[in-house]
Amino acid sequence: MTRVAVVTIAHGRHEHLAAQHRSLARGTVRPDHYLTVAMDDPAIVEEQVDGLVREVVAVGRGPAGGLPLAAARNLGVRTAIDAGADVVVLLDVDCLAAAGLVASYADVVTAQPERIWSGPVTYLPPRPPGGYPEDPADLTAWDDPHPARPSPAPGELLESDDPDLFWSLSFAVHPRTWERLGGFCEGYTGYGGEDTDLGRTAIARGIGLGWVGGARAYHQHHPVSNPPVEHLDDILRNGRLFHERWGEWPMTGWLEEFERRGLVRREDGNWTRETAVSSTKETTP
């Protein structure tokens, strides 16, 4: 029998985490192991919903003071594999699982373990007065996957080896493929860069990427900044690391917007902080 683990990493977002837990507990197939890596957040504790236990592993902040997103994901996957998982699903804390997400990932990773498989993600509008649907089967009425990523229909698979399309909101991997990949580069701390780096690493090591239409997820709304000014230092630090590893800068759309605002400047092919930065937020859907 295939043993499936779902791993999420979290700092805050307690209501979103609880809603994700409910969606996984009520899917057509439950994960055998549900694990949260709590980053500098002692309020996240083990809980049970409808018979599905959420276990917790705790980590602190990274050496630069940022949240260790890459290292936390690696810890979660390693913990799941050591506990006997045959398929590991990584799901962003903001994502609700569609009813068939766990089953679809289990099927495709078991049948084609040499690829990293991702599912379409819909960004939900602000939470209505009655909340999002409690039954994951009812989430299909909200289905509108992000247009910048592949979106095969339920029941369809798509092989797409463009590393820049990979994201960590929702994906699944076989333990053997994870060992070949080596996980996320833990030099990235704080916000930005580690997703694209993982996609590049996968292709460089001969690991394919793919999209599975049945593994749909729904990203719960929360306020964001556009561009993410409060993450500027993280983006610059992680961008330099990415440039060292791959010879180019990621997140150029954000960097160019920062430049237009006078917050950074280009210097000899690199980006440098220009001024002190305000963290004023602009809310977007």
Automatic annotation (TrEMBL):
Keyword Transferase applies: yes
Stretches assigned to the Galactosyltransferase C-terminal domain: 171-221
Region (Disordered): 127-155
Superkingdom in the source lineage: Bacteria
Keyword entries, A-Z: Glycosyltransferase, Transferase
Coiled coil: none
PANTHER family listed in its UniProt record: GALACTOFURANOSYLTRANSFERASE GLFT2, RHAMNOSYLTRANSFERASE WBBL
Protein's recorded name: Glycosyltransferase family 2 protein
Organism in which the protein naturally occurs: Nocardioides cavernae
